[in-house]
Write a structure and sequence with these properties.
Blueprint (H helix, E strand, L loop, with lengths): L17 E6 L5 E4 H10 L3 E6 L6 E5 L1 H18 L5 E6 L5 H16 L3 E7 L8 H14 L4 E10 L2 E8 L4
Parallel strand pairs: 1-4, 5-6
Antiparallel strand pairs: 1-2, 3-4, 6-8, 7-8
């Protein structure tokens, strides 16, 4: 099975009488299709349809393989620049000690500085669910300690046996 090219090139550009021609070493303007094709062939290059929906269609005089390479390279750059936010989880128990909270606070601070989203939650086991208030206080104190670099995205809420709160990094100025 032959993979079809995503762009129409040279003689595959059909149903067009004139085209807007662009490219290096070419005087931009509107040309009859046959003349535009002749100009591309004289230069030893291809006539590539860039925008079929424009009136008249826009065609570029270029080497098709180089054009595809540049297009792929540009898409790769765009993908690399797209920011990905990773979710980091920090787990507490309702009776977590002060030292452990400070230890986890350092980790959360590091995650927020790296631009990650932090999901802090208190996990209630068995009968410890009766300490819901203690879990909420713990999460709010945690958020208060991180308020210089993080914002609370959602306040603590109980979902099943977990009380969950989300924190995001503050925008840098």
């Amino acid at each position: 099975m032959i993979k079809e090219d995503p762009h129409r090139i040279n003689n595959r550009i059909v149903g067009v009488n004139e085209v807007r021609l662009v490219g290096e070493g070419v005087e931009s303007g509107v040309y009859p299709f046959t003349e535009a094709l002749r100009i591309a062939e004289d230069m030893g290059m291809d006539l590539v349809e860039i925008s079929a929906s424009a009136v008249p269609p826009v065609c570029r005089v270029t080497e098709y393989k180089k054009f595809l390479y540049d297009l792929k390279k540009k898409q790769k750059e765009i993908k690399a620049k797209a920011a990905t936010v990773e979710m980091k989880e920090i787990r507490f128990g309702p009776n977590t000690d002060e030292h452990d909270i400070n230890f986890k606070l350092k980790h959360a601070r590091k995650f927020l500085e790296e631009g990650h989203k932090v999901k802090a939650f208190v996990f209630f086991r068995g009968r410890s669910i009766v300490f819901k208030e203690r879990g909420e206080i713990l999460l709010l104190k945690f958020a208060q300690d991180l308020e210089d670099i993080g914002l609370v995205e959602s306040m603590p809420k109980l979902e099943g046996k977990r009380m969950i709160m989300f924190l995001i990094a503050k925008k840098k100025k």
